[in-house]
């Protein structure tokens, strides 16, 4: 029953679902969304920005109603009031104010008049572009709880295209007036490590025509027309499936529209890529040895309670790097699986495949070729690099994935040493592991932003069966390393599907930095971040983190009859906001376990390290 399960157990169960790529924004087996993640506690060092509107430089004029450019102006929220078995439409709600975070440095009075803009860019994370007809998906886990399958997943491509359109429409940043210079993706760009999903992602970002359909080009072959009441059947007026019983609508033509070709304009600015566990592994946690199932013709949608429990246990423990448990379940139940059209395009991607696809000039878009990766990365299958964010601002993209079948993250020793060397090369003053000051007169003293998929709590020292000769390093070790270099401003990441901003304070204030964790674009609240960096001219810098929604209107068509690309993108968001148990756990129109508290959304993050301290 709701409220009876310990929070720790609920969090572990949510991790299992997140690993399988099937989690939604609510509880499992009766647990509410509020129980899945700890409620935000108000931090005394977090305060709303007084006279924010007066202090900010003028912004570009907002787009006409019902949609504005950022969540400073307006946000999507559920209309009406929650009732069991109802589907709530989205409306345009009030924007979220800018909040000043002062845990790491004291914000100086008048800094808004002294600021020097340094950089402006956008973070995408956890797009999870999904081929929902792939036989290797594990939708059968929904038998363990309504939240272990997303009803909106067939619309991920339409939603991502709308996000690209929004970035293309952005004017100057609200705090710097700089136009975004690039987009950085922080992983889980695709859902199931397949070649066709990777092609869709690269085309969404760089531009072109996409047909989000696999298998039989004339028919959908997935959970949503399987006849199983466990899944939402939007086009079936006779089946009272689980989701219709909780209010999801009948939408004739939904599946035909969801698999219809769509054209992405592509980003008009350069973009860079960071790898996530779903990019690197099928399901984000499975063995690459399962390729034959991915390209095969048997799609398993229903299993016994014992098989579902065994697979959930294997996911939770992470002690099955070869995915023997799932392989046995798929083999044992093959006769009862749905027959689908085999498709070689669903083949699993090796690291070499992933890098080569990024380096293909056909996917260059607005650049750069490789999107951060170079031929050197391809030759060594290394998925980490550094790049110039702006003048005197350095970006470092790291690879935190396990390659042996696990959803958690880590760094290998070779990459950790590379990261240390890169940080040192750009820091005239740093500290060794024993706290002794180290000087480097040749360094350029760039401000440093680190990007990864995993956030620090999800990084462990678990051995990687694919790289058994290399010790692994967890989030605490990465924090300790970054804190040795005062030039580090922030570590920006995803994976959690939660908006959460964490100060990493140090006894020496200059060695403090921020960790910016951003929610996904597949689950509520469907956010990206517009990030701006300024030198405040008083020995501090500010990192502004403004959340951005896609260009799709908040309101969907009254009769659900707009199945255009724009209509599908709006529906994508609305169905996500109607995930099981989500509405019941909202207070004031926000589910803070996922959207974060006010200081995790639109924030000014102040930290030591500005020009006056040089």
Could you characterize what this model shows?
By secondary structure, this protein is of the alpha/beta class. Helix content is 23%, strand content 18%. It has an eight-stranded mixed β-sheet with strand order 1-4-24-23-22-5-6-9. α5 (156-169) runs parallel beside α6 and α6 (195-206) runs parallel beside α13 (351-359). The protein is globular. It starts with 6 loop residues before the first helix and ends in a 6-residue tail after the last strand.
What are the key terms here?
single chain, 614 residues, alpha/beta, 8-stranded mixed beta sheet, 18 helices, 24 strands, globular, disordered N terminus
Low-confidence stretches: 1-17, 21-45, 50-68
Tally of contiguous helical segments: 18
Percent helix among the residues? Answer: 10-25%
Strand content: 15-25%
pLDDT averaged residue by residue: 89
Radius of gyration: 23 Å
